[in-house]
Amino acid sequence: MSRRFTPSVVTANDLFEGDVVYLTPDQGWSRDLSHAQLFTDARAAEAALAQAQAQSDRLVGPYLAAARSGPNGPEPAHFREAFRARGPSNYPHGKQEAGMCRP
Amino acid sequence: MYAYSEFDRAFLRTRNTQFRAQVERRIAGNLTEEEFRPLRLMNGLYLQLHAYMLRVAIPYGTLNSAQMRQLAMIADRWDKGYGHFTTRQNIQFNWPRLNDVPDMLDALAEVGMHAIQTSGNCVRNVTADHFAGAAADEIADPRPVAELLRQWSTDHPEFQFLPRKFKIAITGSPNDRAVTRAHDIGLRTVLRNGARGFEVIVGGGLGRTPVIGKVLADFIPEADLLPYIEAILSTYNSFGRRDNKYKARIKIMVNELGLDDVRARVEARFRTLRAEWQGVDQHILNDLRRAFAPPAFRVAPTDGFDTAYQRDPGFRAFADTNLAAHWQDGYAIVTISLKAHGATPGDASSDQMRLMADLAERYGHDELRISHEQNVILPHVHKSDLPALYAALKTAQLATANIGLASDIIACPGMDYCALATARSIPVAQDIARAVAAREHDIGGLKIKISGCINACGHHHVGHIGILGLDRAGVENYQITLGGDATETAALGERAGPGFAYDQIVPAIERVLDAYLDLRRGPSEDFLATFRRLGAQPFKDALYLPEVSAHAV
Ligand code: HEM
Ligand code: SF4
Fold first, then answer.
1. What pTM, to 2 d.p., does this model score?
2. B90-93 and B82-85: which strand pairing?
3. Is the pLDDT of residue B6 over 70?
4. Closest alpha carbon within chain A to B28
5. Which of B281, B341, B363, B541, by CA, is between 20 and 30 Å from B516?
6. Which chain A residues contact residue B50 at CB under 8 A?
């Protein structure tokens, strides 16, 4: 039963833009993964997710995404999350356009 | 071309008004995402990895210049100045904002376009041979029947909630350019005793269970086609599986019931339905045939073409590679490549769209086509106009002479956009195209097709070389299949063996190509013919025993 909890961030898509957003420590939403709150405790993460699920007037499809702690804040643990955090690789669109992601 | 009637326009206005209200209710918090999702999908609006995506139908791939210009306008005004043409002859806008989508749909309606039934478990955009109405090998233009099918299936009350999505493809030529054998229903025009009819193929499909379609009826007279198709759909609606989404396509029903059983049920249903059809469809079909009548072709000398062909090697390569035979003397079918080496397959900028629209208007009787191979076609160009057309295309990176060659790759959006993807496909296509550019004319005809997950939107199973991107223990991994074929001799490719890492997939493909060049009997034996003569083994050796095969040659 005591499967170890993988550290995670709460993430979703913004209802209006569709862009990927992350829950920040001050209960806000950022488009930048490095600003996200990294949960290391399963119960706290589930509680934050439940709160996100209640915000369906601004979010679509919230879930917990595995992440690691890095020098500038949380980093993606899987390449899918790396693409979500950065944007497509064929054009500098999305977050790359906004100058929001570090290479 | 078919022009919308007042009925069509009124229908679209109602649908768009409804959707506008639904978007408003979602934004106002009166609809949850669970409630809104099916409504947006019915109108072609997906949510992908980074943004919404609006999928717009281009029925049987046919567009006029005004429609193409409107797509360019939409791309500029509400998206990022480009669109992505897909294997299902749709266009996808990758960056719309939810608030803007109702306006985008209204703008589409202005030119007789929409996004209805581009998603959901209904009859999807009917696809057709992109050379329809122009190909020299054609028995009959399949588009009047395709349009009839579109009208009949749009908002058909009985078929809005099928067990799963349903895709129909139609061709009027014996040379199948519409991949009819990989569709839920594939229709091939045939003549019997001078009468037109269709071979009806059923249960083809790709995805996680790829199946080559089987012949359900070898000849259905044209007048019986609609009731016969209705009988198939009605049988599927009753007996297709709804308990498991992965077993819900008609191909699984055909496999589970058996072809003979399905045929018996369809025929029984057909006998009932046939009596109910009073021939209205045939009147409509006659009108549609007039709408798709050939343009007023010109008779003019083609000396200009011959001179340019002799003098300009660039034009010669373009003419040899990108033209196909037209049934009308003096005319050619021009395929405009959306696969400039290193470009994203199927993407066109708004400037490119406008240029293609202008050229269609000036030189192409105002017609454009989108092919399932993600290129744009000007089906009717007089040969004397080709040098000027080529010069204009060159100014917008639209003159790449690579149609049917190794860099003319089909690639689905993959993990750069698609929420279902397990790996990227676009950058793999870009890198392969750059790597093969120098020798692709030497390699000759070759179909490389790439999908970013087992859903197979990039048709990898029927590529001569197919590439499937997977997630293996948290890293991108690419499986190669060999010997697939999307034409009338359709075949599923054979898995070569273990997959390759992202940085190994391009070298792996290059080894397959090296092996082919060593093994072929000469330039006239293309990759697929060589594969069929020798089987997969020598190519597997090249993939997995590079040292050994390097010594062997
Ligand atoms: C939001 C993006 C997309 C989603 C969610 C999606 C979803 C799917 C799914 C789930 C399947 C498998 C269906 C099955 O096996 O029952 C499929 C198949 C397919 N899709 Fe897509 N797809 C997307 C984009 C595309 C694009 C961009 C194209 C064209 C380039 C495309 C063309 C096809 C084709 C040709 C097939 C295989 C034929 C078949 O239905 O068996 N799809 N898609
Ligand atoms: S094959 Fe997979 S990754 Fe590619 S578009 Fe289809 S669902 Fe997305």
1. 0.94
2. antiparallel
3. yes
4. A57
5. B341
6. 18-20, 84, 87-88, 93-95
